[in-house]
Amino acid sequence: MIATLSENELPTLALAATDRPERPAVPVPVGDCGFMAMLREAEPDLAHAQQSHRADGEVLHVWRHAYTHEYVVLIVRDNGRHGVKESGAPLYDRLSQLAGMWLASESPRRGGAR
Description:
It contains 3 helices and 5 strands. By secondary structure, the chain is of the alpha+beta class. The longest helix has 16 residues, at 91-106.
């Protein structure tokens, strides 16, 4: 399943309001500049946008592919009940895989296991 025609026309941050099902998620390290730089290098066709909804206790992170228009919305909530919505391909699984590789490569520098 790919993004629908109407979803292709939506502004990036409006994708969070689509009726796609939400599943639980462990957030990728969006606050780590090194991870975000690596992600831009690994997936140059993904555009990223972020928006805070302080009243709702949420931060939205949206990635959209420039050519396929597939997207993923990561919802980071203050209450810890984070979620993800996707348009089709398991794009968030790919982001999580890259995050795992990033964290493993950074572990010695962050004082983790050697």
